[in-house]
Amino acid sequence: MMDALFAQLSVLGSSAVLLFGLVTLWRRSSAAHIGAFAGQSVALAVTAAMTALFTRDWQLYAVAGMLLLLKGVAIPVLLTRMDRRFGAERELQPYLNTSASLLVGGLLVLLAYVIARPLVALSQLPTRTGLPLAMGLCFVSLFVIISRKKALTQVIGFLMLENGIALLAVLGTYGIPLIVEVGVFLDALMGFLVMQIFVYQIHETFESIDVDQLKGLRK
Amino acid sequence: MNVVSGYVLELAQSALALVVAPGIVGLIRWMKARLQNRRGAPCWQPYLELRKLFAKEAVVSDNASWLFRAAPFVVFASTVAVTFLVPILAVPLPFDAVGDLIVVVYLLLLGTFFLALAGLDPGSAFGGMGSSREMTVAALAEPTIALAVFALALSAGSTNLGQIVTRTMTDPGGALSPGHLLAFGALFVVALAETGRLPVDNPATHLELTMIHEAMVLEYSGRYLALIEWAASVKLLVFFVLLSNLFVPWGMATALTPAALALAFITFLVKLVALAGIIALFETRIAKLRLFRVPELLSVSFVLALLAITSSFLWR
Amino acid sequence: MGGVFIALLSPSLLSALLALVVRPYRAWVGAFNVVLSVGALGAAVALARLVLAGQTPTWGPGEILRADALSALLALCVTFVAALAAWLGPGLGLDEGLDAARVRRFRIFANLFAFTMLAAVSTNNVAVMWVAIEATTITSAVLIPLHVSKASVEASWKYLLIGSVGIALAFVGTVLAYFDFVSLAGGHGSALLNWTVLRSEAGVMHAQVIQLAFVFILIGYGTKAGLAPMHTWLPDAHSEAPAPLSAMMSGVLLAVALYAILRWKAVVNAAVGSGFADALLLVLGIFSLAIAALSLVIQRHYKRLLAYSSIEHTGLVCLGLGLGPLGNFAAMLHLVNHTVAKSMMFFLAGRILDRYRTTELGRVSGLLRAMPVTGGLFAAGMIALVGLPPFGLFLSKFAVIRAGFAANRPWLMAVVLALLIVAFVALVAHLNRMLYGAPPAGVTRGETHLAGLVPLIFCAAVLVVLGLTVPGPVQALLARAVEIAAP
Questions:
Q1: What is the pLDDT of residue A181?
Q2: Which residues of chain C have pLDDT under 50?
Q3: Which residues in chain B have Cβ-Cβ distances shorter than 8 Å to A22?
Q4: Could you give phi then psi for residue B98, rounded to 5 degrees?
Q5: For residue range C78-137, what is the model confidence (pLDDT) as tens digits?
Q6: Tens of pLDDT along A178-188?
Q7: Taking residues B185-211, what's their average pLDDT?
Q8: Among B77, B169, B207, C209, whose CB has the most other CB atoms within 10 angstroms?
Q9: Could you give the ipTM of this predicted complex?
Q10: Touch C-B: 3+ C-beta pairs under 8 A
Q11: How far off is chain C from A175, nearest CA to CA, in Å?
């Protein structure tokens, strides 16, 4: 009984995480994207905490706490600051329009279900039904990175990809060892800070953060 | 339950829907008015409007053909037919064998289709504009209804609406499954689109350029307009019934005892009032979308329905 | 036992710390850097000797640091190029047009870069290896726009984004492999992410899941290695970066990424046999080779030319890795040769850029007259890169092709030969245009900074030695490394 409840709650949590990711394909403003990312991180933290509750694994509590602090609060604040500095330009049209992007996103989730079939078949854990959703989030984030034109949105897409991988780890193996998790977090934080520096530099050099202008180097 | 009482139930159910529908529309308007700090007309105002319209003379344009006069009857008839097929008070219904969800979707579409034709018929500019907009919305919304309810049908094992309801009643855990929740989300957005509510269409607008449904019926007057308005309110009721009874069916009668029916009636009213409140709150909070953004919203609901089917399919 | 690790890893860390602490930057910091990096090179040699003597040094809780023959080989490459970069990099009292702040930034991050690469090759834990390789992306990306311009900012953004996405995919693969292992073997804990454990228990793994994991890992680390079609960041990044950084990136970062792929290949082969991984490696290898060879023909900038040549050679190494034990030996020999040759070439390109002030091929001519020694070395390096004797790359290229025939793939080798000939013609044509003729006006003649040429002449000498014969210890080390990669 507890297993069934656990399974259902974990799938609910994973669905919430994926749906926040799909919001990035729907809304065009950076503020909406940042809000979606913050919401997604909170949902992920809640899922991790709930998994910790059911498996009595204190390490996952630590992971949930880190997720909440770092990706739910700190990074969105930094992103909002960046957005306020150069988001004031007109909204850039992505390479693919919204309806088509949403359809592609839906199809990517379908693809993730197909690809994750051996994973679901192999796993014995009650959380296994959420695995395709985590993989779907990874694919959708990849699509966001390649189809959006604003450098800021590409950074958000990358952060969502990391969320997807974290969700995969939580659902598939109840999280990876804490030492590794800490290393991954530090890496992610450092990567984000460097990306932030680069968005500033792009803005300084190109007077905008439209990555479509970054095509001087060809061949 | 025996056959005769089954048919009586069907008639009673349909009559109930016809009687209650304008009241729901009035309730939503009243709630909106209160939320906007106005007094608002009382909830029974639509009944008075219908009575007034039935008494008035119907003025028909010279350019209109037989279609113009026939359309209101077709729309009304198809909507009443739907009320026979959706589970309002009790399950299972004797007409379940005749009409499942696919029939319901097509009956609703029939009404929309004829209304769009009637908008084009008199040859007025605004009518044509309303019809083309309505068709754009319908083209995206109809597949979504089908997909969303199909997601439920997958987990129930049949497209029979009564069976879907029964299945959800006997398996409460399944009601919280992501397939159901996603289908609810998709159906909610589609309900807003099909019944002409914000953010897709503003039912209280007087500006023709912002109209979708109102523009199609601009030429109608008298009893034709009364029938169309009534049919529109019944359609709203039907969607409310689908949203509440497919997803939160508890309280419905499974046996034809007076106690069960009374309980079913009360829960029916409670669910309607709750949904009316949600819609009123929603409409007060958001603004109407620009027309070219409506397909985006409908794509979102389509993707939600697609995801609902995917997760229902693999959840089994 | 732990001492050799400390001796290997601490010099670069100390150099970075020193450069961080000393503000403003002073030339003696650079001198210290050189000394420490030579020390690291010595430690790598000591490590190689330990390994050849049959030992496998380990250190740390859960054997987190572990060096076998493969690690020792890569450590030698990394420390060699790092020492070159320390010696020939900015900040040793020579004027390179960079202010003190930039030089200080270079010294800090170049050393951190070297440290992360060394950490990646000396750890036993695949997750720590991943963290280290991700850190290499970050530390190298900071340095690419050392000379700020639209092109360099664009290049560094592409590198950072594509590299990070690739690394994230590699992490997906790592998590999937861990998931596979844990689901079937049970248990929990960081010891299960040790490569030695994964390799020895690989038999329990579920075939489909580990194959899926390997696909992600190959795409992920392949992005860092510059394999097509994930190579789009490479020509931009390697051409816009300052010369010492390009040398480090082209020379050893690609090698470290291939090292990661090799480690995982060993696990996958132990789980499902060698057919699957070999097929994927062959496909990626030939694709990279094709794209690089065809792109070499239309190049107009010499640094991009060198970058595409890196893709070509990485493709060839990848191809060799898919051809069984013989191919693996050839591939690793090729890796070592390429490291030496490519880093030498990038340093020479830096010198040419300094003198000619342009990166365009069309505007560089008369190299032999303007800078005879540099020009001569450049020509030698280019001849090495196209795979002509008496340089080492000829031997290793030949060995790859021979391995291909031995593995029963004659048609594939025919295609490889054709592509190599295309690359050969393109590179030699470009080289001729650069070497002969008269230098453009405004280019002073004669060599300057002669001290900087000494290590490059040494590199050329190493290439010749490796071309005439593979010295005993090197051969033994390679043989042991092959045993680990392809048993």
A1: 82
A2: none
A3: 300, 303
A4: -85, -45
A5: 999 999 998 888 877 665 667 888 888 888 999 999 999 999 999 988 888 999 999 999
A6: 777 888 888 88
A7: 87
A8: C209
A9: 0.90
A10: no
A11: 9
pLDDT band at A91 (very low <50, low <70, confident <90, very high): low
Average pLDDT over residues A162-171: 91
Cross-chain Cβ contact B178/A4 below 8 Å: no
Closest C-chain CA to A139 = C169
Instruction: Convert the pLDDT of each residue in B158-172 to its tens digit.
Output: 888 888 888 888 877
Q: Which residues of A touch C240 (CB under 8 A)?
A: 217
pLDDT at B316 over 60: no
With touching defined as 3+ CB pairs under 8 A, do chains C and A touch?
Answer: yes
Query: Which chains would you list as touching C if contact means 3+ CB atom pairs under 8 Å?
Result: A
For residue C477, what are its two tokens? Answer: 């080390």
Q: What does the pLDDT look like over B236-262, one tens digit per residue? A: 999 999 999 888 888 888 877 888 889
Of B176, B307, B315, the CB nearest to A106: B307
C236 has a chain A CB within 8 A of its CB: yes
pLDDT the model gives residue A17: 94
What tokens does C179 get?
Answer: 């998931």
Residue reference for tokens 């113009």: B68
Instruction: Give pLDDT, residue C187.
Output: 67
A90 has pLDDT over 60: no
Query: Nearest residue on chain B to A106, judged by CA atoms?
Result: B303
> Do the Cβ atoms of B311 and A15 come within 8 Å?
yes
Q: How far C175 CA sits from the closest chain A CA (Å)?
A: 6
| The three-state (H, E, C) secondary structure of chain C, written as one string | CHHHHHHHHHHHHHHHHHHHHCCCCCHHHHHHHHHHHHHHHHHHHHHHHHHHCCCCCEECHHHCEECCHHHHHHHHHHHHHHHHHHHHCCCCCCCCCCCHHHHHHHHHHHHHHHHHHHHHHHECEHHHHHHHHHHHHHHHHHHHHHCCCHHHHHHHHHHHHHHHHHHHHHHHHHHHHHHHHHHHHCCCCHHHHEHHHHHHCHHHCCHHHHHHHHHHHHHHHHHHHCCCCCCCHHHHHHHHCCHHHHHHHHHHHHHHHHHHHHHHHHHHHHHHCCHHHHHHHHHHHHHHHHHHHHHHHCCCEHHHHHHHHHHHHHHHHHHHHCCHHHHHHHHHHHHHHHHHHHHHHHHHHHHHHHHHCCCEHHHCCCHHHHCHHHHHHHHHHHHHHCCCCCCHHHHHHHHHHHHHHHCCCHHHHHHHHHHHHHHHHHHHHHHHHHHCCCCCCCCCCCCCCHHHHHHHHHHHHHHHHHHHCCCHHHHHHHHHHHHHHCC
* Mutation target among A19, A28, A111, A133 for the B interface, most CBs of B within 10 A: A19
Tell if the CB–CB gap between B177 and A11 is shorter than 8 Å: yes
What residues of chain A lie within 8 A of the CB of B178, using their CB? 11-12, 15
**Cα–Cα dist A21/C116, whole Å:** 32
